Amino acid sequence: MNKISQIEKVRDEITQARVHNKTIGFVPTMGFLHRGHLSLIEKARAECDFVIVSIFVNPTQFGEGEDLDRYPRDIDADTSLCENAGVDILFHPAVEEMYPTHDADNLLVSYPDLSKKLCGKFRPGHFDGVTTIMSKLLTIISPDKCYMGKKDGQQLIILNRLIHDSFFPVSLIGCPTIREADGLALSSRNEYLTADQRREAAEINNNLKIVAESLSSGNGNIEEALTQAIVRLEDHELTVQYFDYVDIETLESVRTISPGSYLLCAAVMCGTTRLIDNYSVIVTSQGACEIDRGIKIQLSDSAHV
Ligand code: AMP
User: Distance between CA atoms of 59 and 69, rounded to whole angstroms?
Assistant: First the structure.
């Protein structure tokens, strides 16, 4: 595996891979890799000839007072994990490499409307940071396929739009959410949780499951199901920022069960740690609900592999 921090060197390697007609798979991450990240890398390895993983804690997607400085980092452990997973290039640039005009008049790629919905209400500027860094990374790497997690549902939806509207010649592959045995979605931020908070955090998935079952059983009172879920979560000392059922394209709230694609999604504060999760829901023309909850792993201690 080649560990590279310079854009020019990555480009040279990719040019070489292209000369040999290799298909390029790309997995963008912020590091502190867990089994969720590894599932994306495994899929890229299975489907592409040449796999690039980026590790970059992108400062522009963190707001004032957020966890940029304390975001967990362990580049040595991540390097071994990537090596063992058969990654060809680990791209680990410095902030100055990705933002060469830092502090001057920086590039901003933005969806003014979508970026303000759901998580955007609570993290102003977050998705602008995500779309800006992803347009830089996709330009540098020009992958054939880019693998990202459905766990970050709004991010996936916005990046699908970015790829479509910017004509990036890449397929964005949404991969299933990998969950702990008790259902908590794996996240680098789970590292922040105390043992008590870690137990309570499983309630997020439990409540997504309850509301999803209510949708599947045809209970049309979606508002009531969502309100009850919020009450149950708050009984567990969790602070709910949103718990919503939204259209997958507009991210607008939906309160009827009608054919289409939706996200049942939540953002919850567990102490000072912000956790997000979602199930994707397809309602067929016959009114049946097909729900994608992701995949549970069987080991309990997997916050960091
Ligand atoms: P991050 O390092 O948090 O920016 O995540 C990098 C990529 O891994 C994103 O595409 C995430 O959606 C994906 N990811 C994070 N957690 C999970 C998970 N539990 N299951 C599947 N993918 C995940």
Answer: 9
